[in-house]
Structures are given as C-alpha cells and as structure tokens.
Amino acid sequence: xxxxxxxxxxxxxxxxxxxxxxxxxxxxxxxxxxxxxxxxxxxxxxxxxxxxxxxxxxxxxxxxxxxxxxxxxxxxxxxxxxxxxxxxxxxxxxxxxxxxxxxxxxxxxxxxxxxxxxxxxxxxxxxxxxxxxxxxxxxxxxxxxxxxxxxxxxxxxxxxxxxxxxxxxxxxxxxxxxxxxxxxxxxxxxxxxxxxxxxxxxxxxxxxxxxxxxxxxxxxxxxxxxxxxxxxxxxxxxxxxxxxxxxxxxxxxxxxxxxxxxxxxxxxxxxxxxxxxxxxxxxxxxxxxxxxxxxxxxxxxxxxxxxxxxxxxxxxxxxxxxxxxxxxxxxxxxxxxxxxxxxxxxxxxxxxxxxxxxxxxxxxxxxxxxxxxxxxxxxxxxxxxxxxxxxxxxxxxxxxxxxxxxxxxxxxxxxxxxxxxxxxxxxxxxxxxxxxxxxxxxxxxxxxxxxxxxxxxxxxxxxxxxxxxxxxxxxxxxxxxxxxxxxxxxxxxxxxxxxxxxxxxxxxxxxxxxxxxxxxxxxxxxxxxxxxxxxxxxxxxxxxxxxxxxxxxxxxxxxxxxxxxxxxxxxxxxxxxxxxxxxxxxxxxxxxxxxxxxxxxxxxxxxxxxxxxxxxxxxxxxxxxxxxxxxxxxxxxxxxxxxxxxxxxxxxxxxxxxxxxxxxxxxxxxxxxxxxxxxxxxxxxxxxxxxxxxxxxxxxxxxxx
Amino acid sequence: xxxxxxxxxxxxxxxxxxxxxxxxxxxxxxxxxxxxxxxxxxxxxxxxxxxxxxxxxxxxxxxxxxxxxxxxxxxxxxxxxxxxxxxxxxxxxxxxxxxxxxxxxxxxxxxxxxxxxxxxxxxxxxxxxxxxxxxxxxxxxxxxxxxxxxxxxxxxxxxxxxxxxxx
Lengths: 705, 167
Description:
The complex is a heterodimer. By secondary structure, chain A is mainly α. Chain A has 27 helices and 2 strands. A two-stranded antiparallel sheet of chain A has the order 1-2. The two termini of chain A are 47 Å apart. Chain B is an alpha+beta fold. Chain B has one domain: Ubiquitin Conjugating Enzyme (Roll), CATH 3.10.110.10. Chain B has 4 helices and 4 strands. In chain B, a hairpin with a 2-residue loop joins strand 1 and strand 2 (33-42). In chain B, 57% of the residues are buried. Classes of the chains: A mainly alpha, B alpha+beta. At the A-B interface, helix 11, helix 15, helix 22, helix 26 and helix 27 of A face helix 1, strand 1, strand 2, helix 2 and helix 4 of B.
C-alpha cells in the first residue's frame, strides 16, 4: 500500500495551510480585480492563447463525452481522433476570430453607452476572468480543498472531539486506499485525458471520499461508544444526526449521478452511482446497528427481565447479512463493470481491479458459507433440541448461562442444560459441545453412542477431538455420519463449573455405565452411574476409576433406578463441593441482583469519614455501620459465610468508579499491612504510617535488587 | 452484538462488586470502556506469592462471552505460566478452536459459561500451583523445578515490589 511512503511526508499544519490558501486566494482576487478594472480587459489580456486552449479542451471534452459510449481508443481510433482534433483546432481558430471581433465591437458600444459598469457586471467579469486564468483556477481548487478540510475539521470538533489512535489509523488507511483506487480508476480504467474532466472526476470523488471517511469515522466511533453503557444521550444524538445527514447527502449525490447519467450515458452513471449506493448502504448499516444497540440498551436499562435478545436474534442476523451482502455485491459489480469497460486487456490497473475482485469474491463466498452454517445449526437445533417446557423453566430458576439473563423461552440440550435459543445458536456456530458440561452434541444421539463405543477401544488417541462445527468437507452431508468427538472433561479442574446432576436422560447414562462396567466388572453399576452423572463422559469415569478415585461402597447394593439422587452424593466426587455451592449461589444471586441496587443515601459522608481516618479504619466503619441500607440484602449476603460482604453496586458511573478505586486501595493497604506485620523481623523499614500510600509513587522510587 | 456483551459484562461487574471473592478486586478501568478491566489479585496464602497484590489487565472481545478475554499482568511477574511480557497462559483463556501449545484438553478451555470471576480464581490457583509443562516462561519453569530456593527469592522480591515496599 502506498500508505507507508506517504506517511513520511510532513504535512503542513492546518492553520498555516489555511492562511496560505486564503492569502493565495486574496492575491488572485486582487490580481483579477486589477486585471478587470479596465472595462476593456478582455482585449488586453492575452486571451487568445488562454481561451483558445480552454475552448479547445472544452470542445474536445464534448467530443470525448460523445465517445464515452464507445470503448477506449485503440491505436487507429487514437490516430483518427487526433486528426479530428487537429481539424477541429484549425476550425476553432478561424471561428475564434469572429467572436473576438464581435466582442470588441460590443464592448466599445457598451462603453459608449454606459461609462461605469454596474457592480454585478464587474463581479461577473472577475468570475469569468478567474475561471479562465490558470493560476486563479488552481487557487480556487486549492481553496475548495481547504474549505473541505475545514468543514471536516469542524465536524470532527463538534461531533467526535479528539480522535482515538485506532480511529486515526483507520481514517488514514481508508483515505490512502481511496486515493489509490480512485487514481487507478481515473487514469487506469476510464483513462481520462482532458484536464477539465479530470477535475470534475476528482471533485466528485473528493466529496464522495470525504463522506466515506466521515461514515467510517462514525462507524468506529459507534463501535467505541457501544463499549460503554454510560454514554450521554447527546453524544449519541450528534452521531446519529451526522449519520442521517451523510445518508441524505449520499441520496443527493445519487440524484446528481442520475442527472449526469442522463446526459453522459449509462456507463458514467453506473460508475458514479456505485460509490453513492455503497456509501448509502454503509451509512444505513451503521444506522440500523445503532438503532438496535440503543433499543437493546434501553431494554436492558429498564428491566432485565424483558427478553428482547432472544426474539431479535434472527432479525439482527438477517439485517447484518443483507447489508453485508448488498455492500459486497454492489462493490463486486462495480469492479466487474470497470473490468469489462476497459476491455479486459492486460494492464496494471486491470490487475489491481482483478485482485480486488478476487478479494470481494472471497468475501462473498465466506459470507455464504457462514450463512449455510447458520442455517444448518438452526435446522439442527430445531430438530434435535426441543424447546424447554414451562416446568423445565420453573424448575431451573437460573439465568441463561451464556448471557446471564432471564429465560422465558429456552432450548434444552440432551444433557438437560437450558439456554436461550439465540445464545445457543451463536455458540453452536463455533463449537459443538454444551457450554456448561462440555457434553459433545451431534446430529443424532445414537451417533454419539456409536462413536463413544469406537473410542473406548482406543482411549489414548482421541483425547482431543475435532471440535469444529465449522466444517465443509461435505462428508457430513453425503454420508450422514458426522465427524464427531466427545470431549474429555477433566474433573480435577476445581474451578470449572460442575454439571448439576439431573435425572434426565437416564437411559443414555445407563447405557454408558454398562459400557464402563464391561471394562470394570468389579465396580457396581450404581457407583459408575453416580460418577457418570457428574462427569457426563465415559472417558472421565474411566479415568477416575483408573486413578482410584472411585470408591466401592462397603455395602454393595443392587442397582435401582430410584437411587440416582442418593448416588449423586457418593464419595466419588473428589472435586471441591464448596466451589460448586458457591457457583450456584452466586449465579442465583446474579439472577436477582438486577432489581437490587442498594440505596445510596450518603456516599459523600462516607467519603468524608474515609478521608479523615486511615484507609484501614475507614473500611471498618463502613462495614459496621448501616449505610448499606436494606437489611434483607445484608442477611442474604451473610448466609454465605466465607464470602465477605461486598460494597454497593451504584447506579452512577462516577460513584462506581470511586468505589472500585477505593476497594483497590483497601486491598492493597491491607495486604501491605499484613505483610509488614508478618515480616517485621526481616524488614527494617519505617513504621506503617510513613509508607507511601500509592503504589505507583513508591514503585518509581524502588530500585530492583 | 456489542449490546449483549455489554450487558453481560455489566452483570459480571455487578456480581463481582456485590459478592467479591476473597482477595480479588476487578472492574473496568474506565466507565467509558467496559471492555477493558483491571483486576487486583492477592497472592494465594501459603505460597511464595503470598502477600503480594498483582495488578492485571483484561481485554474483552466484542463477541464476549463467545470468545475469551485476554489477560496480562501489568506488574513484573516471574512464573512458569506467565510470559515475560505479562500475558497469562492458562487453558481457560484459550478459545476451544485453537490450541497454541498442542496439548490442552478442549474441555478445559473457554466456554461462555466461564466468567471473569472463574478466570481470576483459576489464575490464583495457577499462582499457587504452576504447571511446569506449559512453559510460557521457560526460565521460570526450569528454576521452579530445579532451584526452588532461588525462585522463591525472586517471587518474594516481586511481592514486595507490588506492595510498594523497599526490597
């Protein structure tokens, strides 16, 4: 990319650039005023050369636009047109003499009639002069760019404020690639040869590029704003209004393109409109996403029990898909058009266009594959995992483990775990196991069984199976025997959530247990079942048996179907039960906590006490006093003995920030205090009060050993 | 998608504030960006990291919780499972698909039911019991195995440094 080279060129400061442009413009104005101060200026200026050439180019421009419909000139065509041009030139020159004479006479007449020109007439003269004098034309163009940059800068100031580094980088990349591709387009593809046409195209693309950059910036900024729930609504408003104005401007540009297209033919119209449509699509995409985000936040802010996400999942997916595909298709056809227009002969420009085409085609293909995967997963889910019944839902009072929100509808996996439809869908698109217990999922349960049996014979080889849903080898569709792997869950990881023992799918577990028993006939079926209910995997249970973690109870008992619950508590659960308890406790806590913001009566007074006393004692005061409000909440918290009582979760973001900061300080100071008490003998350091509070300060003074 | 990720992070933040595990404080660095958190982790008791308070930074992807966050200690660390630049190498932080070290069980890896709290607890237990098989920091792994005395000395120095005490 050309970005690297251009980055090095020092760009002048905006202020200096503006001053220079304004100075240049005023210089030109002064020059043209001086030149036109004489009513007969037209005769004095060496207009013959200037105007002739400009007339000529205009005439040829018309010629070219007529030719636009045809292909680019080949050699003979070029010669012919050159001939034509020369003839035309001669014709022009002879014709020029008449208008000049006429003009002269007219002017003398005018002078005789009216000594002083009106102001309007004078201004008109200045304008004509400036549009004919090359220096003035360049100055005007420069000024136009200066204005564009100033407008951009002010929009940035008003809407965005300071740009973040990633936004700047995106902007730069986008700018240079736009310039690069449009340069290729103008000089490589449509092969413009006349100055005024180049200027027109460049003007068109400057405005388009400007809008493109703005919309890119809006997109980046929107993505950033969506990272925070506390963005003030007016900054959303500014961004949305900018997006809407970009969208309407792109509409205006489309209309302009249509007007020009009527005049200059279909090809020009398509070239011009493609970019407009692209811009409009991109902008409206961002707008739609924005609307969805705002709606989402609204819903989340009002009450967490409104299940908006579940139903909106497919809508969100399909709007994304439609926009993405539409953008890609428009871009693709635009490039294809370019290629066909330039007759597909080998040139640098065409190579670049072809590269771009390939890239776009890849993108479209990827989108298509992703969509096929999506449909497949959706289909599979509908076929294999039933919607959870009301009983299931009321029995399972937990939230959806993926989004942590309440479930009103849910899908039930074979292992008995419930998830939101859309949450499950998006997970299954990338993985094939149950998020909670890692039970491998497949098209048919029987397939699991068969697969498992195969695997038991060679337990070494397939500890790590293929874990991808995202496979397009086709064997899945042709042979209808899925590539399937049952994952090994290691029961030793204390921190992993353990599956909640359920009595669902007992037949499946019993089958698995029989298989294990075939290998270890010494172990009673009930013990194996109990372990399987926890591990949900034959391999783990086998592993547990081999490791000797499975105890045979002294009193061997016959396996009975209703023993499940009792056996779930068998001593074979070597994993930390308290962690398990804590997990379920905390997740049920999270379920309710949405409605339980603590009242925050006197945060300020709390701050005061804190600053007046030492951090340590401030903490104590806080814990013992009743500023936490609701007694019920405290009681409920106390039921988990080992968990220290937390702070409030404030609604105000600044308060939350302060509380977090304070908690960090408390943790640090407590740790420091404890450390010093413990190692008093080792450390000959000043007393506690003199230790500087902030880590950052002290760590700077430290010298490593 | 960012909306659901944001809501989930908000819920986790709420839970970690109301119901914090012992020795762990975590929350967004700034309220302007809920996808970057700082966590303070107290070194587990009875280990060479006891007493230290280790700051770490967590960066969440926009599709969280479908993809795992990235975690990086911002203080100096010397541990077999922590890279020299502070990145933490534990299986819970690896997406089920990729397997950088080539030996992890995918069951131990990321799943959307994991949470910041579980990650941080895993990190605490990783501090307590380094896994010298996955050598993120080979020097540390070797020293941990062969020269425990020296390792403990370095750990104690780091502990003092994180507390802002003279070493």
